[in-house]
Every structure is written in C-alpha cells, then in structure tokens.
Amino acid sequence: MATVKQLTEITDIDDLKDLQKLYLKDWPSNCVAYFWLDNYLRWLQQNPRLNHLTFYTLNNDWQNDGLFILVHRYQLFFSNLSKQESDLKDALKLLDWSGGFKVSAIQENHHKIYKELVAELNLTMYREMPTTMYSLNCGEARKLEINCPEGYYLDKVRLEHAELINDLWSARHPGSLKLIQMLITNNTNVGLYERESGLLCAWCLRLQSGFLGALEVIETHQRRGLGLVVASAISKAIATDLQHDITALVNMNNAAACRVFEKLDFKLIREKQYYWSMIKPRHGDQISWPNNEKITLCGALSEMDRLQQVGVQQMEDLKSVYTRDWPKYCKEYYCLDNFVDLHRRDPQLENVKVYALPDLELGLFVIVDRNQISVGFLESERSESLLREALLQLDFLGGEQFASMPKRYFKAAMDVIYAKNLKIDINSATYSLVLSNEKALQFQVEPPVGFSLKSLDVKDAKVVDDHWEWSEPGTLSFIQRQIFCNTSVGLYKDEDNELVAWCIRAQDGLLAVLQVKNSYQRRGFGALIVKEFSRLEALQGNDIITEVVPENKASLSLFQKLGFRIINQCNWLLTEAPMRER
C-alpha cells in the first residue's frame, strides 16, 4: 500500500541547523538555500516567536534530500539537493496557494517544476523576472577598500528610512514595507549620508535570501559613484561580521547594477539563473498583506528578556561588569556610579527608576530619570536587539531625552522612537573624551589672587541654570540635585563672593555645564575649573569624562591641551514633546 504523502512542519531549531549543514555540500552550488536558512535561524534566535513563519518538508523526511519549503508571510522559497522533480513537486502541490505568494530565487532546475505546477493548479502568475547571480568570496570581500567621498559618511540605515527605501525599490509590492522594516531591523545594511544635512543618499540591504538588494542612490546624488561605495561597504561588513560569501541577483537589463558588481570583482555565474514570480490570490487581484502592518520589533518575551527594576546592590554588580575593556565602557560605569551614590544618599529618590535584565552579566540597563534616559549594554551578537526589546517595554509620551548615548546605542534608540511614532526634536552629535586619573593627579591648581576655588552651594544652582545654554523648565532641579550629591567646582571672587566660573558632575558622570561668565573670559578660568574638577575626581580614583560638540573648537582645544583624548562619538536625542513646554 502506497504511503500517503503529506506536508509536515520542521519545528525543531536543531533540525533546521542540521538541514542547513546539508547545503554546505558542493559549495557554493547550494549557497542560496543555505543563506535562506541562515537568515531565518538568526531571526529566530533574536525572536523565537517570529510570526507567520513555517518550514515544511514531505513526510518528515528532510534528511534524505534536504527538501524544504519556507513560507514567511507571503514569501515562498523551496529547495532540494538532488534537483529531482517528483517529491518537490508533490510537496508544492500540497501547499495552500489560495492567498497567493511571492516566489523567490527559483533555481533554473526547479523552474520547469514550478511552471508545470502553475498550469496544473490553474494558478495565475502576474509577474516573473529572470535574474543572474553575481558572487564574491568572503576572503576577497574582506579586502575591499571603502573610499567614502568627502562630504558623506557611512552608517546603518534606520527604521525611519523604511518608507523612502520601499518607495524607490523596483521590487516593491503590497506588504513590502513591512519586509523592508524587518530587513533594516535584523540584517546587515549600509546607508550613505550627506554630512551637512544628514540626508540618506544611498543604501543597500541584505535580503532574507542572503542576496544584496534594494541598492539605490537618490536621483539628486547619482553619477557620483555612491552605489559602488555602499555595495563595497555592505559586502565587507557581511564578510567581516558573518564570514559569508556575498551574492547578488541582477536583472541583466540593469546595466548600472552589473557595472557596480563587476567593478568590485564579483564573478558573474552565467550558468546560474534564478527567477522570482508573483502568484495572484484565488480571490482578489493582489496579495492582501497590508503595507501598514504594525511595526513589532520583538515577539512575546521570556522572563529573561523582561526588564526588572533593580536596587543599589544590583547596580553595583552592573558597575563591575563595565570595568571590562576600559575605557570603552567608562561612560556606562560612571553613569551607574552616579546613580548608586544618589540612591545611597536618598533611597526614596523620586522620579528615578533603574531597570536591568535578570542576567546582569549582559550589562543591559535602562535608567529613567524623569525625562532623561540613559542606557548601556555589553556588545554582543544580540545586544542591539535586546536593547530595542527592553526600550519597547517602557512608555514613551514624547519629550524624552536619550542623554549622552554612545554611538553603539544610536540605531536601537532611533528604531524605538520610530516604532512608537515619536518625532525627533534634537539630534546632536558630540565627542566623548576621557582623562586618566593618573594625569589628573599631576595638575597643580592655584587660583589667582582675589579668587577662591570651592564646591558649589545649592543656592548657586539658579546662577548655573540661568547661564546654561540648554536650560529649560525642569533643569534647575537636576542641577540642584547634582550640586548637593556630586562633585562640583566654583571659582568665587573674594571681594563679594560672586560666582564667576563653574562646572558640575552631571547625572551620567560627565564633567558638565562648564561656564565662565562673559566678563571673566580669556583669563584661563575655564582651564582652572577643569583642572580642579579633574583633580577632585582623581582623588576618588576616577578617570574624568566629558563631551564636546564638534563645532565648539575652543572647548575641544581646551580639553585636548589638558590631556583629554577622544574615545567615541555620542548622540543626544530629544523627542518632541506633546506640548512645547517640557
């Protein structure tokens, strides 16, 4: 009696990993199926409950021929190793085609099966395109030189750019906006930005098939070689980070794309032709997946992924995590150090909540200090996605400020801001600088005749706040708290006790709010204040950290002359409040 053939699901991650290993055979002839599986295994690692994703095989027998069918939303991919027709065709016949599919990367050997199936099932195909593969091996991709033109800079693409990328994508279709959002969130990507305006001018994504895709240069910046820059940058990033060969499918009529890949020494695999095709639903003209699907950056969370409020001892444990790779994480260390001190002085500290994941070794924390948000994690493969998931658990109403945020956190913060439908009011870049305590202890500090150096008094907070360029409703209380609880330095005129120059230690541990009154400038008082503050911090065993906006050449020069060195770029992000009064 013949065995009844049926589609069965592959649900075990270890089985999927073993299935993927089968496609290492005769590399790179089976690389396309390998990269499809690799992509979704990585996505499942980030989100084990990824919606609308199913892997099928025939009669639970994927081991024999590597036969699998992958369905994600409306996307369909299928493969087997032998390229024989019968079992694969039987499996595809058992699939529910009623909702329509975008069928991707159909190998030439399978194209005949697919066309026969369309005819036998009376399916309606309304788009089909042949493409040819370009390939560059991992070793060669790692050697690529990236020559970013003057006036531009390379960075990751952000979720806020998804609509622009989708609008200009030649392969866009109903539901593709959500796909673009997922690719930006989960996969390697590269964007090229105009330095002066911050405008995204060119980009390239890595598709879920592993192929480079959505390579685009906006019209006003074409004919400048920018497509070549982003293609080389993403190729090198994939080779370096994932140790993968680089592949791209190109319509041979797209001469511009062909030239880009040929200039980068990609090899044209003429014997490997692939097709993609759209199958209409049984009822309706188009696949019904909406373009406005809700953006979800994380699925159902396990207990280990849920933020929990922590106390002083756990903050101390987190601090110890950030002593690694010093001074890479010194900002996170001193931010925690500040809030440990604040909580020790006032265990009922108002409007401050410190969160972390149960596994403190990950180092992930989020501190909410009224509207100020400080974050940290130890870099790892999952750190960026974990930070996104953590921030999505918090309520954002607008007016929040991501303060003094190292560049490694920027994309996750921007993705969450976009996902919560907030707008950016201020996006300011700064240099992060550090001075070792050994150097600070060498400072000889002597105030000029007629002046005295001492800690600020809380009653001085109003003067400090009034002179601060970032003063706004609510900042006075921050300054009062930091003066009361932390290191501060003021230079006072002996004659009348006038405060003429000052700085404080901010809530994130920075030397901040450095100011000299206008009538006392150009007398070296700024350097005097920095030296005394640094000396006092060094006596407590601390290095000294600060930030300067690149445009403030005078301050940058002052700190560098005193021995501070730039270690990172940071961002200050302020979301637009519901009302202008914040």
CATH fold category name of the largest domain: Aminopeptidase
Distance between the termini: 77 Å
Number of separate strands: 24
Shape type: elongated
In which order are the strands of the major sheet placed? 1-2-3-4-5-12-6-11-10-9-8-7
Helix content: 25-40%
What amount of the residues lies in strands?
25-35%
Notes on the protein architecture:
With 582 residues, this protein is of the alpha+beta class. It has a twelve-stranded mixed beta sheet. Helix 8 (226-242) links the parallel strand 10 (211-217) and strand 11. Helix 6 packs across helix 7 (176-186).
Produce a short descriptive summary.
The protein is α+β, with helices and mostly antiparallel strands and 582 residues long. 32% of the residues lie in helices and 27% in strands.
